[in-house]
Design a protein that fits this description.
Radius of gyration: 17 Å
Largest sheet: 4 strands, antiparallel
Number of domains: 1
Shape: globular
Mean pLDDT: 88
Distance between the termini: 31 Å
Strand order of the largest sheet: 1-2-3-6
Helix content: under 10%
Amino acid sequence: MEIPVSGYLVHSDDSDSYHSHNLYITTWDGRPVHVHRFSGVTSYDVGHSHRYVGETEPAPSGVQHTHRYFTFTSFDDGHRHEIRGVTGPAIPLPRGGHYHEFSGVTTTNGQIPHLHRYKGRTSG
């Protein structure tokens, strides 16, 4: 099954030996795509917590959908954790638009190996 996707690439003109391209998808199967911002604070474990902020991956507008997300926590107590997952389905807002709920656990890290729990709602 083929799904038509349109968008554009932006080349990063870094001077080091690595370079990158950012792909910005603008439509998926003929529908415009959208993203949501998310942020929060992890659970308090082993004497500290972490902050996180990010933006979901694009998903089509106008149909039921979820978003994948990925970010790193703030650097606290000498380390950081990775956060990744898939949001729940879209939850309509009274005045239009929608948000998604998300939750999970971070990767394990730290001088004393541990993880943190997190949960929240995306922007609308």
